[in-house]
Write a structure and sequence with these properties.
The protein has helices spanning 9-18, 28-38, 44-83, 101-109, 143-149, 175-181, 221-224, 232-238, 258-268, 278-281, 283-321, 323-331, 336-380, 401-427, 431-435, and strands at residues 89-92, 114-129, 132-141, 156-159, 170-174, 188-199, 202-216, 227-231, 247-252, 274-277. With 438 residues, the chain is α+β, with helices and mostly antiparallel strands. β6 (188-199) and β7 (202-216) form a beta hairpin. α2 packs across α13.
């Protein structure tokens, strides 16, 4: 009986002879590659590196999906809070003055994709309460119409939004603005508007006393500390607009369609009107969030890259360990392409299994992070996002299928690329050189 030059060579030949059956059963390369994957290697260090590479890819993919989902959640939460105050689309006239706003509002409300439209007056003023004062943006609104284009009424923490009656001179303050003034519901604040009158006694500013009828908290410091709402008719009288308004606020059915609807309205309305959407008003802010997401994707992708490079080390050691088997396969007629595919199967399987495990763990963690994080906080008696420091005190999450696909494709792609060089080196093995010292 002939003695084989390598302990596993007999196994390889037996598999080869078994696979001389019709190729429709399964390819020879796939069979041998799977055999190498599930066989017990004499070198346990190679198995350890393979497992480390697989788990590294899984952890990297899981971290990527989770972090992107959390960033999506923060972006959506901030956008919801911002859009609760500003409008999806805003139409303003020359010098922020529109006289015939009623037919304009009715016309805009009938356009496709538009849910509602409401007029508003925008001005600036100085609010004074006792010995405290603070500047603020004054917005005049119609309470019933404002409910259709914003969520301000749902963010009231004191008083009533509907208490803004015409001629009553009521005012609704942001939470931090009221705190800065030391005002509460029922207090009277003095509103100093720009553009006073020059009299023989000197310059007299326009003053008006307003009664605080409500306090809101939208969770954005910019608005909670610098915005005050009054009735539209009171604002018209205060800023001497007559029956005119500053503009029209528009609510659209789908927030993603706001730029498209803006362009459609700009084409239909006269050139004297300026039409803007929410993405233009806060373009720098949302662009910064998008850039941060891309940077985080690249940084965390390096974790997957490190694990993918471990595949190179694993397959190089496997190729060295299997040189005799490769030589025997080549002697039996296996082509360099077949040898290449055999070792591609091993590297691709490591990347594929690691990617699948990471995708499953990342999706599960992203969908349950709002439950997992509070549980960890209770166990360790801590709070990661303190309400006294952060405007968002709960860790939000929003899983997007596109992000999952991008992460999975990037991970599998790097694993495949890491497999090419060792497999190519295995395909270049010469039988005579490999068996010289066996």
């Amino acid at each position: 009986m002939r003695v084989w030059p390598h302990p596993s060579a007999a196994v390889v030949i037996r598999e080869t002879l078994w696979c001389n059956a019709p190729r429709m059963i399964r390819p020879l390369e796939l069979l041998i590659g799977l055999r190498y994957m599930r066989a017990r290697r004499r070198n346990h260090f190679i198995s350890f590196i393979s497992m480390t590479s697989m788990m590294g890819i899984a952890l990297g993919v899981m971290a990527l999906i989770t972090v992107l989902s959390v960033m999506n959640g923060f972006q959506r939460t901030l956008r919801t809070r911002i859009l609760g105050v500003i409008s999806d689309v805003t139409i303003t006239g020359p010098a922020r003055h529109i006289q015939d706003w009623r037919p304009l509002t009715a016309y805009v409300a009938r356009q496709p994709g538009v849910v509602a439209a409401a007029p508003y007056v925008r001005g600036e003023g100085l609010l004074v309460h006792g010995r405290y004062s603070s500047g603020a943006i004054i917005r005049g609104v119609l309470p019933q119409a404002e409910r259709q284009v914003s969520t301000m009424a749902s963010h009231m923490v004191g008083g009533r939004f509907n208490a803004l009656k015409p001629g009553r001179f009521g005012i609704v303050l942001g939470r931090y603005l009221a705190w800065r003034l030391g005002a509460v519901v029922g207090s009277h604040v003095l509103l100093v508007a720009p553009g006073g009158m020059v009299t023989p006694a000197g310059f007299l500013p326009r003053l008006r006393s307003f009664r605080v009828v409500g306090i809101f908290d939208v969770g954005m410091y910019e608005y909670d500390a610098g915005l005050a709402l009054v009735n539209l008719h009171d604002a018209q009288a205060l800023y001497r607009l007559g029956t005119g308004v500053s503009g029209v606020r528009v609510k659209v059915a789908h927030i993603g369609q706001a730029p498209k609807i803006r362009r459609a309205l700009a084409d239909k309305l006269p050139d004297s009107y300026m039409v803007e959407d929410w993405s233009q008003e806060h373009s720098n802010f949302f662009h910064a969030l998008k850039t941060e997401k891309v940077v985080m994707f690249v940084i965390l992708l390096l974790i997957v890259a490190v694990a993918a490079f471990n595949i190179v080390a694993t397959l190089v050691m496997v190729v060295t360990d299997k040189r005799a088997d490769i030589a025997i396969l080549r002697t039996l007629g296996a082509s360099p392409r077949s040898i290449l595919v055999i070792f591609l199967v091993q590297g691709v399987l490591i990347g594929l299994i690691g990617t699948l495990i990471g995708v499953v763990l990342g999706v599960v963690l992203s969908l349950n992070i709002t439950t997992i994080v509070p549980f960890i906080e209770r166990v360790f008696h801590t709070q990661f996002l303190s309400p006294s420091v952060y405007y968002i005190s709960q860790l939000p999450s929003h899983l997007r299928g596109a992000d999952v696909w991008h992460v999975a494709i990037a991970s599998f792609g790097m694993s495949f690329l890491a497999t090419l060089y060792p497999a190519w080196q295995a395909a270049r093995t010469q039988p005579a050189e490999a068996l010289r010292y066996e």
